[in-house]
């Protein structure tokens, strides 16, 4: 099963997810089946179990080894083992989901794959505090179907924990103190990413307000717009840049960006999409909704530099009007 039917239009607040399942022993002796999902945009293909070669010095038992796929060596992670599920006997061979995000290719072994669903981000609920706790922050959203619940997995979080060098990073050798301080509104549904991004941007001399999804960011921008109108000042006096993830419950980053750029009072606000989904194949989506820039995680240093440049360019353009 190769990647097909990717949504061509951005800003509709829709996504497509690949539904797959993992089995574990149940209390009655029968296997219990849990259902999970991942954004189709991250999936390169779904294949049969390949021949695995062990990797030297791998400390995590969930990393089964690596395999060769068209001259690319790809590590394979047993997703059930990573999530702490006890193994069960399978009547059918497991499937392997090959993913690509943050310019990294990783494969995940699952018990099986069901189908692709097209849904609205409005249907994706944030995980409860209990679900987030027991899943160790590996679940970013919950989708309720007619007969089952699908948990959306934070595969970036899993890969970053397996390889910390792939996490967010800021070049600490840069002296940001000489730059003027600006205000940034950040939207990201991952608590870990949100707090790290807030901390790192503050080190780059930004004042940061962080929210958990695009809906909250849009509501905050509407509040700022109302205040600006009441006080007879431009929006840029209150916030100078919007940094948004793309995948978020309730409202995604593409839809948020489209709303901002279609609003006469907000359209000059620089919008940077900061996401693992920024790839050459998907960059056209951000362009179509008017994003001022698109940066792939985890390049926070580049994000801060581009934010400064965009803010100064917008200010210069405003002064000429």
Short description:
By secondary structure, the protein is an alpha/beta fold. The chain is 27% helix and 32% strand. It has helices at 79-82, 129-134, 155-162, 191-203, 214-231, 253-262, 283-288, 300-320; strands at 14-25, 31-39, 43-48, 63-69, 72-78, 95-101, 104-110, 112-120, 124-125, 139-144, 149-153, 182-187, 206-211, 241-244, 271-275, 293-296.
SSE topology:
Blueprint: E1 14-25, E2 31-39, E3 43-48, E4 63-69, E5 72-78, H1 79-82, E6 95-101, E7 104-110, E8 112-120, E9 124-125, H2 129-134, E10 139-144, E11 149-153, H3 155-162, E12 182-187, H4 191-203, E13 206-211, H5 214-231, E14 241-244, H6 253-262, E15 271-275, H7 283-288, E16 293-296, H8 300-320
Parallel strand pairs: 2-11, 5-7, 12-13, 12-14, 14-15, 15-16
Antiparallel strand pairs: 1-2, 1-8, 3-6, 4-5, 6-7, 9-10, 10-11
């Amino acid at each position: 099963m190769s990647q097909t039917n990717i949504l061509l239009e951005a800003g509709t607040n829709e996504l497509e997810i690949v539904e797959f399942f993992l089995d574990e022993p149940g209390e009655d002796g029968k296997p219990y089946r849990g259902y999970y999902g991942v954004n189709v945009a991250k999936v390169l293909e779904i294949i049969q179990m390949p021949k695995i070669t062990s990797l030297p010095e791998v400390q995590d038992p969930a990393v089964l080894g690596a395999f060769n796929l068209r001259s690319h060596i790809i590590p394979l992670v047993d997703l059930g083992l990573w999530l702490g599920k006890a193994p069960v006997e399978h009547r059918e061979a497991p499937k392997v989901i090959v993913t690509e995000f943050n310019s990294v290719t990783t494969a995940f072994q699952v018990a099986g794959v069901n189908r692709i669903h097209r849904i609205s981000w409005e249907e994706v609920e944030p995980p409860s505090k209990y679900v987030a706790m027991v899943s160790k922050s590996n679940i970013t959203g919950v989708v309720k179907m007619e007969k089952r619940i699908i948990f959306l997995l934070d595969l970036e979080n899993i890969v970053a924990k397996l390889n910390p060098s792939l996490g967010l990073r800021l070049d600490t050798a840069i002296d940001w103190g000489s730059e003027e301080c600006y205000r940034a509104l950040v939207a990201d549904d991952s608590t870990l990413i949100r707090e790290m991004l807030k901390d790192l941007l503050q080190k780059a001399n930004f004042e940061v307000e962080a929210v958990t999804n695009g809906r909250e960011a849009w509501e905050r921008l509407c509040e700022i717009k109302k205040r600006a109108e009441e006080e007879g000042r431009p929006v840029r006096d209150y916030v100078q840049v919007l940094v948004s993830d793309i995948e978020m419950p309730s409202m995604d980053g593409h839809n948020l960006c489209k709303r901002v750029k279609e609003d006469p009072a907000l359209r000059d606000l620089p919008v940077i999409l900061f996401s693992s989904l920024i790839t050459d194949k998907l960059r056209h989506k951000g362009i179509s909704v008017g994003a001022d820039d698109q940066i792939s995680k985890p390049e926070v240093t580049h994000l801060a530099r581009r934010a400064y440049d965009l803010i100064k360019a917008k200010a210069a353009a405003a002064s000429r009007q």
